[in-house]
Design goal:
CATH class of the largest domain: Alpha Beta
Helix content: 40-55%
Distance between the termini: 55 Å
Structural class: alpha/beta
CATH topology of the largest domain: Rossmann fold
Bound molecules: pyridoxal-5'-phosphate
Number of domains: 2
Order of helices and strands: HEHEHEHEHHEHEHEHEHEHHEHH
Number of helices: 14
CATH architecture of the largest domain: 3-Layer(aba) Sandwich
Shape: globular
Largest sheet: 6 strands, mixed
Number of strands: 10
Strand content: 5-15%
Radius of gyration: 19 Å
Strand order of the largest sheet: 1-2-10-7-8-9
């Protein structure tokens, strides 16, 4: 176990570039908590600020720190068409005066006007990103390889590019943002040891891995549930284990996170990444209508749906004290406006 001060100084040895507004609020949400039978608080990382904020701002602080330390003038990043990561990177690049190439992968079978042109895609363009497309959505290595080809072309033109890689096997700098996020949260909580469970969305797993490792470093032992947004629970658990090993290596530590610490749940994943299901739609409406709190349908809404399921099944016991991490992603709501409006049109009117 380390003190908060030790964790902070460990992180200070990595270059980072401040991009967000911190600390993000830790809100009580009594009406939503009551609906779930829990005492619920929400860590508002949707409110990190830059270019609509979200969890990726914390991750980008370490990638951009490294990029600037290398004298980069251009950054490159890949993601789904409605990627929040890509949009946040385009915002960071604009703020820091860097050029930005974004590659949008065909990962979700949606081709309507709002998915293709609204939401995060609109914001990417407003921020001045150079937009590329990639025809595959489940080829992380190929998507990264294509970015490196664009980077080579940039180099030939005299630029100094820095690729923010998506696939595993790269130093998990982004996860350091969530070691730091865990530290921030622990310092906000009245009594961290009183929390029974933390719930986070789990995609690339940089948020889940960094947050879990940060909590364990600080001696917080409550369950951390990662709600799967892209891969099934077994594949995601493997990914989080690998992420934790590489975060430990990066920090010069070992055996901080055990396999038993890694909890992944894929009950609300079907029919797959970025595709709306009933549970997620219900969770998005529940948060909106109990707390005026907006969640996207790909990440935070799906994660809340996962929490609803865990509470209903008793995997998180009634009355537990839970912290839910709102990772942002709200601009994607506008990318899903046709999908959502179709559902809303069929809603029975309140009496
Ligand atoms: C809004 C939002 N929440 C959660 C995640 C998942 O975070 P991670 O990729 O660190 O697992 C993402 C990833 O793109 C995201 O955009």
């Amino acid at each position: 176990m380390m003190t908060p001060r030790d964790v902070a100084s460990l992180l200070e040895s990595f270059p980072s570039e401040p991009l967000g507004h911190y600390p993000t609020p830790l809100d009580s949400v009594p009406r939503l908590g009551e609906a779930l039978g829990l005492t619920l608080q929400i860590k508002r990382d949707d409110a990190t600020g830059l270019a609509f904020g979200g969890n990726k701002i914390r991750q980008l602080e370490f990638y951009l720190g490294k990029a600037l330390a290398q004298g980069a003038d251009t950054i490159l990043i890949t993601g789904a068409v409605q990627s929040n990561y890509v949009r946040a990177a385009a915002g960071a690049a604009a703020k820091l005066g860097l050029r930005c190439h974004v590659q949008l992968e065909d990962r979700v079978p949606l081709y309507d006007e709002s998915y293709v042109n609204n939401g995060n895609v609109l914001v990417d363009r407003l921020l001045g990103a150079i937009v590329h497309t990639y025809p595959e959505g489940e080829d992380e290595a190929g998507a990264d390889a294509r970015l490196y080809e664009i980077a080579d072309e940039e180099r030939r033109q005299g630029f100094n590019p820095y690729v923010i890689p998506l696939g595993p096997g790269n130093p998990p700098l982004g996860a350091l943002g969530y070691v730091k996020g865990a530290l921030e949260l622990v310092e906000q909580l009245e009594d961290p040891s009183a929390i029974d469970a933390f719930v986070v969305p789990s995609g690339s797993g940089m948020t889940h891995g960094g947050f879990l490792l940060g909590l364990r470093l600080l001696g917080v032992s409550a369950s951390v549930f990662g709600i799967c947004v892209r891969r099934d629970a077994a594949a995601q658990a493997e990914r989080i284990a690998a992420n934790c090993r590489s975060i430990e290596e990066l920090l010069g530590l070992s055996a901080i996170v055990s396999d038993a610490d890694i909890r992944t749940a894929d009950d609300v994943l079907s029919p797959g990444y970025g595709r709306l299901n009933d549970a997620t739609y219900a969770a998005v409406l529940l948060a909106a209508r109990t707390e005026g709190l907006l969640l996207d349908t790909v990440y935070a809404g799906r994660a809340l749906a996962g929490l609803v399921h865990l509470a209903k099944e008793g995997d998180i016991a009634a009355g537990s004290k839970v912290v839910f991490l709102h990772t942002g992603g709200t601009p994607a709501l506008f990318g899903y406006s046709e999908v959502l409006n179709d559902r809303l049109a069929n809603e029975t009117k309140p009496e």
